[in-house]
Amino acid sequence: MEFTIKTGTPEKLQTGTLVVGVFAGGKLDGAALALDNAANGKLAAILARGDLDEKAGATLMLHDLKGSACERVLVVSLGKQDEFGDKAWRDAINATAKAVASGPATDAAICLADSIVPGRDAEWALQQLTRAIADGAYRFDATKSKKDEKRRGVTDVVLLTANRISAGMEVAVRRGQAIAEGMALAKDLGNLPANFCTPTYLAETALALGKQHKLKVEVLEREDMEKLGMGSLLSVARGSHQPPKFIVMRYKGAKSKDRPVVLVGKGITFDTGGISLKPGAEMDEMKFDMCGAASVLGTFKAIASIGLPLNVVGIIPATENMPGGGATKPGDVVTSMSGQTIEILNTDAEGRLILCDALTYAERFNPACVVDIATLTGACVVALGKIASGLLTNDDALARELLDSGTASGDRAWQLPLWDEYQELLKSNFADMGNIGGRFAGTITAACFLARFTKAYKWAHLDVAGTAWVSGDAKGATGRPVPLLTEFLIGRCGSAEA
Ligand code: BES
Ligand code: MN
Ligand code: ZN
Asked: Do residues 11 and 34 touch, judged by C-beta distance below 8 A?
């Protein structure tokens, strides 16, 4: 998709779909007012009839509005002016994205970026808007026999503003687009079924991304993991015929001596539960259990195309969790790379078992901080639903950064406690720890387990079990938390980059 920012007013524009925003109450301003003037008050007259709902995100499509040279005018409600905030803005841009993604028009001019949420700025608005429009065009048809050849929807978008265009505004548009492209990669990997998206496929994707964007990518094999003593990770791979892969990616945007941010993504390409087999209902959704890994790949794509001046390492432990004849059995004790022993009381708590060895491996990069991303616990979906990712960390400043990046990007997280009192729940009679903490506080005890492997550095854990995909009719990967992670990394390097 092509995006260009232009300064101007909408009335003389010729485009397939012109998008203007209006607040509830009928008093027009900005682009809508200019258009209404050119149309001799026709727009205001139509709105006065009440066809457009006042709720933010409601839309009304007008055809051949007199006074405008555009085929269509899409009027988008911004809600009540005194309630205009992040949510109303998101509702308005998402509705716009949906409308322009499906119509016959191939070009559009969108005049929304001058309606700025109090406390935000034009750059913020443009980045969010561009991301929403580009992301709205996402389709997945890789596994359909008939491809959607007559694809409808816009490919050329003009972002119209009445103001002078600054360099920062251009940067914002490029960032919004890069984040949407990163999300698209994360969604593709998540949506691809587990008979295609194997650990080997994830490794090949990382290698291809490396070629495209000049990243250093290394793939460790089972023997390498054995030599490193990754007994915990390997115990999960034992029941599967697919070889496990341990993917290490390096993006170098700063001086070699600058400590990197390390991202670790859970890459379970299918989670049957292992011998502690999951129930059958909705088990297909466990193909999404590699969405943490996908978000690392998507974030790398975004930051490489933005060209962030920062060093970032991505680590992806990848394997299936299957109940084969060689599979780990409940009660088995394994030794992790850290030397700590683990009694595997439930083979379905496998995410933490692969992450712990990856987190120990991360120490060698002398990280500025480590963030792991994992579809780790059903308990997190119960606690936070599909709105917020769970955040647990050993560093309060890092918590603040991630929470703020979540708010700014609209890809939000919420913090849960990681107090030592919870550690007692992981007690084992036969090893240094068990891999489950019982019925209560499942998201917290999972993070407590990981915390035993992250003492050497500042670390945060994002539980994205609720946010990485949606179920039901719209089943599919969401591309989250690529926006949060990219915003976080952007925030880590000031605004020096282009
Ligand atoms: N991948 C699942 C977590 C999950 C479950 C994500 C449902 C989204 C929806 C993870 O490997 C898992 O099975 N966790 C168990 C842990 C339990 C055995 C302690 C869970 O949450 O039930
Ligand atoms: Mn599991
Ligand atoms: Zn899992």
From this structure: yes
Mode of pairing for the β-strands spanning 107-111 and 341-343: unpaired
Please compute, for residue 379, the number of CA atoms within 13 A of its CA located in the half-sphere on the CB side.
Answer: 16
- Candidates 153, 90, 212; CA nearest to 483 is 90
Q: For 57, phi and psi rounded to 5 degrees?
A: 95, -10
Please give the number of the atom of ligand 1 that sits closest to the Cα of 445: 19
Atom of ligand 1 nearest to the CA of 436: 19
CATH of domain 2-163: 3.40.220.10
Range list for CATH 3.40.220.10 in the chain: 2-163
When pLDDT is cut at 50, 70 and 90, the band that residue 462 belongs to is very high
Domain 181-493 grouped into CATH 3.40.630.10: yes
Ligand 1 pocket check: which of 276, 348, 444, 462 to mutate, most ligand atoms within 8 Å of Cβ? Answer: 348
What average pLDDT does range 54-68 have in this prediction?
A: 96
352 in catalytic set: yes
3-state secondary structure 392-432: EECCHHHHHHHHHHHHHHCCCEEECCCCHHHHHHHCCCCCC
Cα–Cα distance for residue pair 315/308, rounded to 1 Å: 19
At 90, list the tokens. 């998101």
Q: How far is CA 319 from CA 172, 193, 205, 234, 263, in A?
A: 37, 14, 15, 9, 18
DSSP letter for 370, please.
E
pTM for this predicted structure? 0.98
Between the two ends of the chain, the Cα-to-Cα distance in Å is 20
Q: pLDDT tens across 319-351, in order?
A: 999 999 999 999 999 999 999 999 999 999 999
pLDDT digits (tens, 9 = 90+) for 71-80: 999 999 999 9
